């Protein structure tokens, strides 16, 4: 067993509460305030996401390898791609790259309200 354990992913943002509320609406869970600059989201049955205030925050650019690149992205499984897409768009996500392969591609790319890219992925049998 490795001596190090994964505990969370922290996202920089201008308003930690607002972004925590967005992801709670997407994934479930209850955001918990650490302080004015930090919120945690304990995702049911999943990892913890954290949101930290970053003064002067600039959203990443997707897809770009230069300058202000995406830096990271999150992937989320969905059973029904259309329902998942409708859900995240209704919460304020922006479509970045939808399926242009006639519904055969296994993922679609979106940005959260402050620009972090994330993918909805068809859940694969393991």
Can you offer a commentary on this structure?
The protein contains two helices and eight strands. It is of the alpha/beta class and 126 residues long. It folds into two domains: 50 residues, 2-Layer Sandwich (Signal recognition particle alu RNA binding heterodimer, srp9/1); 69 residues, 2,3-Dihydroxybiphenyl 1,2-Dioxygenase, domain 1 (Roll), CATH 3.10.180.10.
Mean pLDDT: 87
Count of strand segments: 8
Secondary-structure arrangement, i.e. CATH architecture of the largest domain: Roll
The CATH topology name of the largest domain reads: 2,3-Dihydroxybiphenyl 1,2-Dioxygenase, domain 1
Secondary-structure class: alpha/beta
Q: What's the helix-strand series?
A: EHEEEEHEEE
Give the overall shape: globular
Q: How much helix, percentage-wise, in residues?
A: 10-25%
Indicate the CATH class of the largest domain: Alpha Beta
Low-confidence stretches: none
Radius of gyration: 15 Å
Counting H and I runs of at least 4 residues, what is the number of helices?
2
β-sheet strand percentage = 25-35%
- C-alpha termini separation: 23 Å
Name the CATH homologous superfamily of the largest domain.
2,3-Dihydroxybiphenyl 1,2-Dioxygenase, domain 1
Biggest β-sheet description: 4 strands, mixed
Q: How many domains in all?
A: 2
Q: In which order are the strands of the major sheet placed?
A: 1-4-3-2
């Amino acid at each position: 067993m490795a001596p190090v354990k994964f505990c969370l992913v922290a996202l920089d943002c201008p308003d930690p509460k607002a972004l925590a509320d967005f992801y709670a609406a997407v994934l479930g869970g209850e955001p918990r305030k650490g302080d004015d600059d930090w919120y945690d989201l304990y995702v049911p049955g999943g990892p913890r996401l954290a949101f930290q205030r970053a003064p002067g925050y600039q959203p990443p650019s997707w897809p770009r390898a230069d300058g202000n690149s995406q830096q990271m992205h999150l992937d989320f499984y969905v059973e029904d791609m259309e329902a998942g897409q409708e859900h995240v768009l209704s919460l304020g996500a922006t479509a970045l790259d939808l399926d242009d392969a006639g519904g055969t591609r296994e993922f679609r790319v979106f940005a959260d309200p402050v620009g972090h890219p994330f993918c909805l992925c068809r859940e694969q049998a393991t």
